[in-house]
Amino acid sequence: MTQSLYKPLGWFGIARLGLVQSALGAVVALTTSTLNRVMVVEMALPAMLPAALVGLHFAVQITRPHWGYGSDLGSRRTPWIIGGMACLCLGALAATNAALMMASTPILGLLISVLAYLMIGMGVGASGTSLLALLATRVAPERRPAAASITWIMMILGIVISSLIVGKLIEPFTAQALAFAATGLAGCAFLLTLVAVHGVELPKGAAQAEPDEAEDSREAVPFRQALKEIWAEPLARNFSIFVFVSMLAYSAQDLILEPFAGLVFHMTPGQSTQMSSMQNLGVLLGMILTGAIGGRSTRSGKSWMAAWAIFGCLGSALALLGLAAAAEIGPGWPLKPTVFALGFANGVFAVAAIGSMMGLAGNGQKSRVGIRMGIWGAAQAIAFGLGGFFGAMGVDGLRAVLPETGHAFLVVFVIEAGLFLVSAYLASRLDHRKSGIPAPANGSTKLIGQGSPLAQG
């Protein structure tokens, strides 16, 4: 039985790994937000084009369970994190240059864009899945909920900071300014990742498995069998469905919000990018507030996680109805406060979801942590890809048949609000008594909050 040569990660180590999430969020935000706006508004391309490209990078992530399974079998996860980040940054640079090429050589620009977004998807999947699996295995059970919140908050913080900086650097907008901002962002993100993971794992070949993880590794099974066994667990399956529907609702507005600000509210690229940072700032504050005040159990054994997940979904639905009103009223509507409110509500349900994911993945066999994270990551990625594409396609199609551009956005925002209402219902139906997940060895049920239906089943 192999003995561990290091202690579980402390708060400083958790924060260091959170820097990787910051870097991931910053680079992805450039490709899904800023480049999307530039292609739709400045280059007058159909919104379906960037939506399809972003959808492609999400579609690639359906293979996340394979990457998680591979990192489970390997002795170290940091090479997957570093390699994935390198692929992501190179893909982001290629995507930026390809977008700028579409004005002069559209076919070549489109071909390079396809390759670039494939690289982005592979990089996010390999790096992100391995990072969450590393956290789940290196963080003590009692610290997993806080670790989930810290790393997710740091990702949003990275998006907010990068959006503000990129927004300033590309104002006034020029192709050279965008290329310069993308290069600097990608370089800083990769260097930050190298610093963050340095020394977190022991060198290759050194004994570093925890005793129970070593035991699990002896029972390794083929990928298809492992996937089938995990999917047979009621909580794992139901939680995947909740993640899919809620992320579908969230992502449907992700690619149309900045074009909405430009087409209906006549904002410049810099202004709409900074408005997007307001949404992410709301997400950040929602996560912080929920994590700070939500650690109390509610009636009937249900924890704050279930209550806050439901509240976040309902709040998101209400904010989207506010955006629908903004689409009808136009520039007179307080758009930035509405976008901030949407972000805040998103943050509330996101911290509950990611905290539950971390606790559930860390329970049971540690040799399955990577594949569990891969399944839920794949559900999220597929939802993001479908939501972004169909949201943009819906806007394009409705603009062609409706007399006002704002009316097209109104219909899409109302549909998204309905999806969040469905998500709230699914969250209320998660039942800890039907988990099928073995309890921790010490008999404790405290993963995300004692009695949590999201954490336990």
Would you write up a description of this structure?
The chain is mostly helical. The protein has one domain: Up-down Bundle (Growth Hormone, Chain: A), CATH 1.20.1250.20. The protein has 17 helices and no strands. The protein has helices spanning 11-42, 48-60, 64-73, 78-101, 106-138, 144-169, 175-197, 211-217, 223-231, 234-251, 257-263, 269-293, 304-329, 335-361, 369-401, 405-429, 453-456. Helix 15 (369-401) runs antiparallel to helix 16 (405-429). It is globular and about 60 Å long.
Please tag this protein with its features.
disordered N terminus; 17 helices; 0% strand; 457 residues; disordered C terminus; mainly alpha; Growth Hormone, Chain: A; globular
Question: Which superfamily, in CATH terms, is the homologous superfamily?
Answer: MFS general substrate transporter like domains
Helix content: over 70%
In the CATH scheme, the class would be Mainly Alpha
User: What's the number of helices?
Assistant: 17
Q: What's the overall average pLDDT, rounded?
A: 79
Termini gap: 31 Å
- In the CATH hierarchy, what is the architecture at level 2? Up-down Bundle
The count of DSSP E runs of length 2 or more, i.e. the number of strands, is: 0
Q: What's the story with the biggest beta sheet?
A: none
**In CATH terms, what is the fold-level topology?**
Growth Hormone, Chain: A
Gyration radius over CA: 21 Å
Instruction: Sum up the overall morphology in one term.
Output: globular
Strand content: under 5%
Order of helices and strands: HHHHHHHHHHHHHHHHH
Class by helix and strand content?
mainly alpha
Unreliable spans are 1-5, 207-218, 295-302, 432-457
Count of discrete domains: 1
